[in-house]
Amino acid sequence: MTLGVIFALAAGTYAMRLAGPLLRGRIQISERLEQLLSIAAIVLLGAFVATSTAFESGSFAGWARFAGVAVGGVLAWRRAPFVLVVAAAAATTALLRLTGLAG
Question: Membrane spanning segments where (predicted)?
């Protein structure tokens, strides 16, 4: 990447972050729209997690990754500490790959 592209991306990122506080008082959004945008963000994140879990380079990523993400998801849902969620997910994936069940 050239230096100009890096600066352009940095300026765009900064402008996007600055737009929120600057436009907050000028644009009125209904409470229903705020709720829908919040739900849309969660759905988008969930879709990203699902596709990243199941596929790598256009093919199935294996059952070990799927199981690790499932363990992490259950622990996060049960409100376990973040470090425990990450460690348990990584350990599950590593143990399944070590035993040859990576798929």
Answer: 6-24, 36-54, 60-77, 82-102
